[in-house]
Design brief:
alpha+beta; Jelly Rolls; eight-stranded antiparallel sheet; four-stranded antiparallel sheet; dioxygenase; vitamin c; metal-binding
Length: 290
Amino acid sequence: MNQKIQCLLVIVVAVTGIGAKDSATRNGAANETNGGEERVVTIRMDPYMDLCRGVYVPPPSLTSSLFCWYDVRNAHSVISPSKVEALSNDPFVALFHEFVHDGEIAQLQALGSMHIMQSGPSNDSWLPVFYENHQTYTLHDRDHPVVERLTKRIERRTGLSCDTAEDLKVIYNEVGAFKTAALDAIHTKEDAQRFAYAGDRLATMLFFLSDVTNGGYTIFPKLRVAIRPQKGTAAFWYNLKDTGEGNVQMKYSICPLQDDQKWTAKKLIHTRGNELRQLCRPESAPKSEK
């Protein structure tokens, strides 16, 4: 009996010690004993965690150079100026607020109603049916006037040509959907051959077509930028450096969705037709070592 009590005491002490270490780790620090001396070891958490949770606060050294403005680059913008919010200056990432209207969003969703299957009770059962949580469909400008109107709006707001841009891709996500690190710039031989007439993917315009309360952030880990989905807002960024090479800093991820559903749309703009609008600057190339 005494041996059993001693064993129980040893187990309790061990569990208590483990719990104390776990608590210290959760607080971002742990005590390390080395030769009888204790020191505090700071533990760096995965950069994805704070960004995906929406709790990351950028330092003033970064935010002090960011600003918002009304863009009036053309005659149309004088009547209806764009509300632009810079999230990163170099590389450039910005938000266009109130870019897509509710009626346009409803029309885009209706155009894909025959393609998108939403989970829910089926006719022959009360149990929910779970389809693939990531579904897409593409829309050409000729499919509906609202698609053509969005393309023209992109050209006015960004100053870029969409003559060689890809078709609008509408994306429907259900709970649990996520996307690992991706770079929209072309990096495979298959895509290079497929878009040989259009060139590389110069820029991306990502539309948020629904509000999301939990999860679903679009994050740029290297830039420490997190974008919360907000209905009607569009995110814009360049995928290439000034030299025309793919910019690895623009790798982005989409955090796991914790809400029921999420609607987005993407327009990929190519270099062909934008040679004089977004100049390639060879002087920005790294100097060769002699």
